[in-house]
Design goal:
By secondary structure, this protein is mostly helical. The protein has seven helices and no strands. It binds heme C. The site of heme C has 23 residues, from helix 3, helix 4 and helix 5.
Length: about 150
C-alpha cells in the first residue's frame, strides 16, 4: 500500500513536471508567416481592433513621427516602414497584450492593451499578419532576433 502511494506520488510529480514543462515550452516565438491560415486569422483580428489607429494598409497615422494635439505619440506604421521590426516577438506580443504604457514607467501611451479581448493565439496571428507586410530582409532580421 505504502509503495503504491509513493509510486502514485512519483507519477503525480512526473506529470506535474511534464505539464509544467509543456507550458514553459509553449514558446510560440519566433512567429513566422508560414501559415496562411494564421495570417488570415490575424487579418480579421487586425481589421476589428487595430485599423482605427494603424490604418487598413498598416501605414500608421499621418505624420506619425509628430505628436498629436495632446502630446501623445501617434500610431506608428506596422508595415515595415517604421521600426516595429527592431523589436523581438516577445516585446511586440507584450506591447499588444498590455499596451506600451503598462510596460514603460511614466509613459503615457494611447494604445491600450488587448489582453482582455484577444487570446495569445489572436495576438500571435495578428503579428503573423503584420509580418506578412515586411520586406524579406527585415523579416529575416527580426525572426533571427526573436529566436
Ligand atoms: C487607439 C489607437 C490604437 C489602436 C486601436 C491600436 N494601436 Fe497599436 N499603437 C498605437 C500607438 C499610439 C502606438 C505607439 C505606442 C504608444 O504610444 O502607446 C502603438 C504601437 C503599437 C506597436 C509598436 C510598434 C512599434 O513600431 O514600436 C504595435 C506592434 C502595435 N501598436 C500593434 C497594434 C495592434 C496589433 C493593434 C490591434 C490589436 C493595435 N496596435 C491597436 C495606437 C493604437
Amino acid at each position: 500500500m505504502m509503495k503504491l502511494n509513493i509510486l502514485n506520488l512519483l507519477k503525480l510529480i512526473f506529470l506535474l513536471l511534464f505539464f509544467n514543462n509543456v507550458s514553459l515550452a509553449h514558446n510560440h516565438f519566433p512567429i513566422t508567416t508560414d501559415s496562411s491560415l494564421m495570417i488570415k486569422r490575424g487579418e480579421l483580428v487586425y481589421n476589428q481592433n487595430c485599423v482605427s489607429c494603424h490604418m487598413i494598409d498598416l501605414s500608421g497615422a499621418k505624420n506619425w513621427k509628430d505628436l498629436d494635439d495632446d502630446g501623445h505619440r501617434k500610431a506608428p506604421p506596422l508595415n515595415g516602414t517604421g521600426h516595429t521590426w527592431h523589436h523581438d516577438d516577445k516585446t511586440l506580443h507584450a506591447i499588444i497584450k498590455y499596451g506600451l504604457a503598462k510596460l514603460v514607467k511614466n509613459y503615457e501611451g494611447k494604445m491600450m492593451g488587448f489582453g482582455d479581448k484577444l487570446s495569445d493565439k489572436d495576438i500571435d496571428s495578428v503579428l503573423a499578419y503584420i509580418k506578412s507586410y515586411w520586406p524579406l530582409d527585415l523579416y529575416e532580421f527580426q525572426i533571427n532576433m526573436s529566436k
